[in-house]
Amino acid sequence: MNKHVSTSQLGSSIWERPVKAPELTDNKTPDDIALWWQLVDSVIEVARENGWSKAEVARRINMADGTFSQWFSGKYTGRLDGHNRTISHWLSAMKESAAIVASVPQSVSFMALKGTVEIFETLNWAQACPDFVMITLGAGMGKTEACLQYEKTRPHVYRATVSENTKTVHGMLVELAEELDVHEHNPARLARAIGNRIKRAGAGTLLIIDEGQHLNDEALNQLRHFVDVYKCGVAIVGNSEVYSRFSKAKKGKSYAQLKSRIGKRLQRTAPFAEDLRAFIAAWNITDPDSIKFLTGIGMKGGAFRQIDKTMKLATMAANGEDVTLRHIEWAWKNRDVEDMA
Question: Could you tell me the pTM of the whole model?
Answer without folding.
Answer: 0.73
